[in-house]
Automatic annotation (TrEMBL):
Official protein name in the record: Electron transfer flavoprotein subunit alpha
Keyword flag Glycosyltransferase: no
Annotated coiled-coil segments of the chain: none
UniProt KW Electron transport keyword: yes
Record Pfam families: ETF (PF01012), ETF_alpha (PF00766)
């Protein structure tokens, strides 16, 4: 039977929803699932993880050095905690992409990246060529498997009837000191988080300016949605880079995705392929976005978006 260790992603004492999606992936692999929480104050995070359905136990490592999620500091601890486990998983987010390759290097094994489907305990599907193709990969069964989970492909695990036990883990690991935390800068917004929002409204280069992006913000606020953008809009300076959706931005899977003035380059479509309903607004009837859209509106976005906003009341 598989023994799966999931490295918890958290910030400001709260578990990231990406961890619950990793648990769904782990349940499809099958076996005992443990969640590893590395922090300076672990209690609240561990309690949250323990209430997720499918978790057998939560392991905690409370050290002052774990106050900030530095991959260089976390990696040797994860490598040590992995002893006895058949699989080690982390979300394919900035956190997981930074951490798990280091762990793989320490353990001397290869990593399976962006797991989007489970065919067996050691056989998975993952996207390649910017999502243009899906490949099946089979990993060796005689060594620990490390994998990052494409969280847009999985629903979050629900709540369990009873909380799993929480155990403090004692690791005799020397931590590197060549990396230190300086500061974290992140945008603050009252809107939903882009990666976990059920509704997202994104704007493209066709908006023409940062000022015109107000149309996107207003529509998003009407819908209670997060705001996203194409790479072209980000490169043009209309919005900050943390709103970028696509292969080189955020991979998302909202229930509703509205693309305004976005032509639909393959790199952008890769980031929204798992969305429930895709609505496209573009004046070019031949735009690639219409090939994947469930609903398409051909016309001037500066006319259609205000009309849509008024129709929402």
């Amino acid at each position: 039977m598989s023994k799966i260790l999931i490295v918890a992603e958290h910030l400001d004492g709260k578990l990231n929803p990406a961890t619950a999606k990793c648990i769904t992936c782990a349940k499809q692999i099958g076996g005992e699932i443990a969640v590893l929480v590395l922090a300076d104050a672990v209690d609240a995070i561990a309690a949250e993880a323990a209430r997720l359905d499918g978790v057998s136990k939560v392991l905690t490592v409370a050290r002052a050095e774990n106050a900030h999620p530095l991959a260089a500091v976390y990696a040797p601890q994860v490598a040590a905690a992995a002893a006895g486990y058949s699989h080690v998983l982390a979300p394919s987010t900035t956190f997981g992409k930074d951490l798990l390759p280091r762990v793989a290097a320490l353990l001397g094994v290869a990593q399976v990246s962006d797991i989007m489907a489970v065919d067996g305990a050691y056989t998975f599907k993952r996207p390649i060529y910017a999502g243009n193709a899906i490949v099946s990969v089979e990993a060796p069964q005689d060594r620990v498997l490390l994998g990052t989970v494409r969280v847009a492909s999985y629903a979050a695990a629900g709540s369990a009837a009873a909380a799993a036990p929480v155990e403090a883990l004692a690791l005799d690991v020397a931590l590197p000191s060549h990396t230190r935390f300086v500061e974290l800068k992140q945008g603050k917004s009252d809107r939903p988080d882009l990666q976990s929002a059920a509704r997202v409204v994104s704007g493209g280069r066709a908006l023409g300016s940062a000022e015109n992006f107000a149309l996107i913000y207003k529509l998003a606020d009407k819908l209670g949605a997060a705001v996203g953008a194409s790479r072209a809009a980000v490169d043009a300076g209309y919005v900050p880079s943390d709103l970028q959706v696509g292969q080189t931005g955020k991979i998302i899977a909202p229930e509703l995705y509205i693309a305004v003035g976005i032509s639909g380059a393959i790199q952008h479509l890769t980031g929204i392929k798992d969305a429930g309903t895709i609505v496209a607004i573009n004046k070019d009837a031949e735009a690639p976005i219409f090939e994947v859209a469930d609903i398409g509106l051909v016309g001037d976005l500066f006319t259609l978006v205000p009309e849509l906003e008024r129709a929402l009341g």
